Known about the structure:
The structure holds 2 protein chains of 2 kinds. By secondary structure, chain A is of the alpha/beta class. Chain A has helices spanning about 1-5, 10-15, 25-35, 90-95, 120-125, 140-150, 155-165, 185-195, 215-230, 240-245, 260-270, and strands spanning about 50-60, 60, 65, 70-75, 80-85, 105-110, 115, 125-130, 200-205, 230-235, 250-255, 255-260. Chain A has 11 helices and 12 strands. Chain A has a domain at about 1-110 and about 200-270: P-loop containing nucleotide triphosphate hydrolases (Rossmann fold, 3-Layer(aba) Sandwich), CATH 3.40.50.300. Chain A is globular. By secondary structure, chain B is mostly helical. Chain B folds into 2 domains: about 10-70 and about 315-535, no CATH class; about 85-310, no CATH class. Chain B has helices at about 10-25, 30-35, 40-60, 85-105, 115-120, 125-135, 140-155, 160-190, 195-220, 240-245, 255-265, 275-295, 295-305, 325-340, 345-360, 370-385, 390-395, 400-405, 410-435, 445-465, 485-490, 495-510, 520-535, 540-545; strands spanning about 475-480, 480-485. A two-stranded antiparallel ribbon of chain B has the order 1-2. In chain B, a hairpin with a 2-residue loop joins strand 1 (about 475-480) and strand 2 (about 480-485). The relative contact order of chain B is 0.12. Mean pLDDT of chain B is about 80; it is low at about 540-555. Classes of the chains: A alpha/beta, B mainly alpha. Chains A and B meet through helix 5 and helix 6 of A and helix 1, helix 5 and helix 12 of B. Chain B: This is DUF6297 family protein. Chain B: InterPro entries: DUF6297. Chain B: Keywords: Membrane, Transmembrane, Transmembrane helix. Chain B: Pfam families: DUF6297.
Amino acid sequence: MGHVLDICTPRILSLELQPEDECLHPRIYFEAMSKATNSPQKSPARREPAVVRADKLQAGYGTTAVCGVVSFSLHGGQAMALVGPNGAGKSTVVKTVVGQLEAVSGTTLINGAEVDDRTLDFRREVAVVFDDDAFFPALTVEEHLAIVSAGHGVEDVEETISAELEFFGLAALAKSRPYNLSSGQRRRMLLASAFVRPRSLLVLDEPEQRLDTAMRHRLATRLRAEVDAGLALLVVTHDPDFLSTVATKALFIADTIHTMTPTQAAVAIASENPHAD
Amino acid sequence: MTTNTSQRFSANEIRQYTFKVGLSRTEGGVMELISEAYTFVLGGLTLLTMAGAIIVGLRNSLGVGHESALVASAVAPGFHSVTLLQASATVLLTLAASLLAVEMTVGPITMSVPQTAWWLGLPVRRRGFIQPGFLKSLIWPAVAAVAVVIPIALGMASNPTPGRIALAVLCGMGLGWLLYGVAAWCQITNSGSWLKVLTAVITLVAPLTLVATALYNNTAGAASITGAQTSWMEYLPTSWPLLVADGAIWPLIIVVFAVLVLGAVYLNLERITTRQLKASAAAGAYVAGSLMSMDATELSKSLGGGPASGTSRVRLPLIFHGGTVFSRSVKTLLSTHTTMILRSPMSLLRVLMLAAIPASLAAVEFLGNAVLIAVVLYLCAHFAATTLGATARFANGNPAVDMLMPLPAKVVRRVHYVLPALGMTVWTAVCFGLLLALGVGSPALLVLALLAGPGLGAATLRAAFRPAPDWNMPAVATASGPIPTGAVKAFLVGPDLTLISLLPVLICLIAGAVPAVAFPAQLTLTYVAFLWGTHVRKPKSAKSKGMFGMPPAPVAK
């Protein structure tokens, strides 16, 4: 945190997230900060209802919270990056946001409804990629993707899959079984599964992990384009370049919680881990 | 993001697609499984045949009884068992608690880990994914009821007619389905943690009450516990099938309760959350892994909700100053292994519990069959051995730790042997001591078992350091997906040495006498087991002499 304090202006520090205080609502704060810092990733003020609205959310396991109270909203066309040191609770927060963990306290609304992944609407709209390295041993890469694509009712399944396999550099491995792939290739396959289906909210947990630099860059550029086209993106990342390209706002989760501009968050990450590639 | 969508496939169609594609790609059949494991199967059958011949020969030459060894009781005349009712009621209670405990962990509503990862995010009704498996799995409580209730009802009922036995089985099925339904309801509503604790305690304590009662009966003489004092146990709901076998009809109300609970579960199947399904899938995978390793501790942890966390006060010295580098390293390793064992006292308790289970059979008249006790004893010995092998298994998974020591691999392996050998010797003393107190065996058999203890320690190492399954072997289609045949071969490494180490003891237990020749035979097998279990395999690459024994072709640099 010491590094963060060094790089943040006093104004930022004074704006430490206080969800109870209405005037410090993250969206208002973010919009104000976007104007103030002349960030290249300016996001237009949105009138549509938020895709994600977390209100006084505290994530944890059972009754034990792993981080402070978080409140934020995320609209279509916005990408929020959750950054911070290992063990700060970023992944726990996103898992709680998408209902994979029970919140210690607080609520999350997705498209105005309480999070409930048992509803078809939720699964239709929300694509989630965590680092679940679990595959059907007998199915090939393209068959895994076909399950997702066909399950979501995509019209041209084969065409969609081959385009994504091409994008993720897996075209030659389409007929391979996942356990014959390298760890990075399996990661690409997992990421591809989020793109062979429709989505209005995409949640990614450290998508840059195990990807080579070229793939990271290609993925970041693609995500940015999709965000600009209206996708809402919630991403946990430790990669400052990835963050700078993709994010329109950031939440720094550590002992305390700060909202930041992507540029400030990227600098914060870089100073936390100067050897990060 | 703006992908065009058309009509979606149903969950049923996706499920069938996944299974059909997987099954169409399997290259082997059941015969592959058998041929892969045939050397082990053949070896086991040969051992059993030889053992059977030795048992018959011993019984004839020593003049021990005239009945077949298969039906002979191991309990000596004059020893008191617990009452038939207490035994039956306790067995039913323990089995019911075990069923409920297992179901509350792995869940009657279950999926595999890949299924949760690839199916649960699809916008289709989940009923198609979970309902077929749930309905099919209802067969298991029914099968268990048939297998358990028929023999107990036949033994207990005063006038066992086919009609009464059939109704007793129906009542047993009702009980099984009710427990199944309760577990499923707890899973759907994310409740019942107190029930989980209760079932765990019953499963642990109930069998011990049999041993304690039998020991009391054998020492109390006239004051021993009578049938009248235990008659209340017949009214425990888990004993209701026994009442039905005796002519009562009202306990069949349990079938109605079961249907009601299962109906409620069926209607609410889709209320189960992703969280619950993922948790049960992970628990199922953990349990399957524990069963593969036959480790009682891992199995217990997997059924009890995962590994416990916390701190331990056990702190043993790890740095030694006197002696040579060699002796200091050996002391450090030994101290480390002791620390690891002492830091999991529950494991030690489980090992002791396993030592009491064969005695609990001996405590019950109709379970005191010598062959049954021998089989259970073998299983308990292997579970105890693998439980004591946790440190060795850790070393196998993390070889870098052992490599830190300036010791040859062979010495490190033998240091790993010390504590399991000691532990299993104590285990045999407790196990055969309890059996002796309940009239099974003789002091000579106890001594023979003590000689087998170090051999069981070696079996611990063989199981812990077994090679990983060869996942490149042909896969075989099974109901739960393809299984590589190499996994079966790996599973048999470990139990084989336990059997070999215990063979003379088991033969003498079933034969009912210990001839003098058994002692040198046991000593020889224990020594062979020691050499086998502490043998360090060379990696395949080091053994390779190239194709067909020719030297490998030089590699261009």
